[in-house]
Amino acid sequence: MATIIKMVVFDMAGTTINEENIVYKTLHQAINTAGYKVSLNNVLAVGAGMEKLQAIKSILQTYLGVNDDLIADSIFQDFSKRLDEAYSSSSMSPQPGALATFQALHNKGILVILNTGYSGSVARNIIEKLGWQEGLEFDRLITASDVKGGRPAPDMINLAAQMYSINTAEIVKIGDSVIDIQEGKNAGCAMSIGITTGAHTVEQLQSAQPDHIINNLLELLPLV
């Protein structure tokens, strides 16, 4: 018997929202300003989808061998200030097909959950800027601030499952980074799907062995 899908958990930036990599460009800027030279591609390769303080720690450790919580905390504080400024002057929009996909899933009785490695305050600012409302375009927002374990730990998906009393095997996870796919697999989701609209290339996504890779959110609908 085919699994009945009851929920789709969507990553935000790069998956459902086009914000032109503002977060990772700002993260790159903050790390380099602190005197640690890495490329934007390095930042995307290691940090995409990850809670942002942990992303800084992982980038410093991976490329520079730096393992210092005080340095990471200092960069994170600078990053947070820069991000507030960047968002105040930036534009963002739904990814192509996002709103139509949300509506089609709701028409099928499938819950639409947004999750993200952003803090709650950053994520809510993005949602507000788009004019999306919980209970209308999407059902619930779950952020890195809501759980103990950030991606690739399954905590955010597990929390969503608990909120609606459903099994993670009835959930699909979709995201634009390797860590999104790993999160879905670690949660035991029915499918973990990569999408090519954001941080990682097809080849990078394939390295996480997703169940599917799609190029537009509307391509999700026949799969569920």
Structural summary, described in words:
It holds the Pfam family Hydrolase. This is Phosphonatase-like hydrolase. There is one protein chain. With 224 residues, the chain is α/β, with parallel strands linked by helices. The chain has two domains: 7-19 and 93-223, 3-Layer(aba) Sandwich (Rossmann fold); 22-88. It contains nine helices and eight strands. Helix 6 (120-130) links the parallel strand 4 (111-116) and strand 5. Helix 2 (40-47) packs across helix 3 (52-64). It starts with 6 loop residues before the first strand and ends in a 10-residue tail after the last strand. The model has no long low-confidence stretch (mean pLDDT 93).
Short description:
It contains 9 helices and 8 strands.
CATH topology call of the largest domain: Rossmann fold
Give the tally of structural domains: 2
Q: Which sheet architecture does the biggest sheet show?
A: 6 strands, parallel
CATH superfamily of the largest domain: HAD superfamily/HAD-like
Lateral strand order in the biggest sheet: 5-4-1-6-7-8
Mean pLDDT comes to 93
Beta-strand share of residues: 5-15%
Give the helix/strand class.
alpha/beta
Question: Using only CA atoms, what is the Rg?
Answer: 17 Å
- The CATH class name of the largest domain reads Alpha Beta
Helical stretch count? 9
Q: What are the segments in which pLDDT stays under 50 over at least 5 consecutive residues?
A: none
Overall outline: globular
Task: Indicate the CATH architecture of the largest domain.
Answer: 3-Layer(aba) Sandwich
What is the terminal-to-terminal distance?
Answer: 14 Å
List the helices and strands in order. Answer: EEHHHHEHEHEHEHEHE
* Strand element count: 8
Q: How helical, in percent, are the residues?
A: 40-55%
